[in-house]
Amino acid sequence: MILVVIIINTLTLVLKWPYMNERLQLFVEIVNHICTGVFILEAIFKIIAFGRSYFKESWNIFDLIIVIGSLVFISPNFKR
């Protein structure tokens, strides 16, 4: 399921271009927020399930860094 969300998120992020239709831009932004929410839940569930051993796996740390970075970019204080 997570792989499908990654593919959907990647495809919607590729759809951005200058002077994009406002409705399509809103759709892409909503899909990005939903995907980010799914990734946040995945990280939380894995941390709960694995406990401290979650941080022993380098892919988990990489994944968590990506999730935190995504939160920075979708935060309302981020200036584009």
Describe the structure.
This protein is mainly α. The protein has a single domain (2-74), classed as Voltage-gated potassium channels. Chain C (Four Helix Bundle (Hemerythrin (Met), subunit A)). The chain contains three helices and no strands. It has helices at 2-14, 22-50, 58-74. Helix 1 runs antiparallel to helix 2 and helix 2 runs antiparallel to helix 3 (58-74). The radius of gyration is 14 Å and the shape is elongated. The N and C termini lie far apart (31 Å).
Essential attributes:
80 residues; mainly alpha; Four Helix Bundle (Hemerythrin (Met), subunit A); 3 helices; elongated
Offer a concise description of the structure.
With 80 residues, the chain is mainly alpha-helical. The protein has helices at 2-14, 22-50, 58-74.
Shape summary: elongated
Total count of domains: 1
User: pLDDT average, as an integer?
Assistant: 89
The CATH architecture: Up-down Bundle
- How many DSSP E strands? 0
The SSE string, one letter per element, is HHH
Oligomeric state of the chains in view = single chain
Instruction: Tell me the radius of gyration.
Output: 14 Å
Superfamily (CATH H level) name: Voltage-gated potassium channels. Chain C
Low-confidence stretches: none
* Count of runs of 4 or more consecutive helical residues: 3
